[in-house]
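Researcher: Checking consistency across runs. Here is Ribosomal silencing factor RsfS again:
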Amino acid sequence: MQTIGVPTIEPGTIARRLVDLAEDKQAHEIVLLDIRSQSTIADYFVICSADSDRQIKAIIDHIDLKVQQEFGLNPRIEGTADTGWIVLDYGDIVVHIFSPTQRDYYRLERLWDQSPPVVVVQ
């Protein structure tokens, strides 16, 4: 929904910014998938890995703060760092932050393999 007089920011622009923000906190194996042709639940998935609960928490806090400051968006957050999988849901964009073990187990990129990667950061 667009507010009168407030410019709409494209989800792709925000998704690319989310990749940068995850990278700021040393997330690795970052993938931005365009899932528009595969799903109606979101336009983009950002998937990344972190090596510890503490790093997962740092990534979440950084993304949450910066996206609020820059775009005025607040995510719905599911999961906890100690489970190894946190989801930040911004509506059109869903961010998945995994421990390596959980990422290997769920293999979201494989589930969405028909969706083209927009950005891949090793």
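Researcher: Does this match what you'd expect to see?
Model: One thing to look at in this run: The mean pLDDT is 91.
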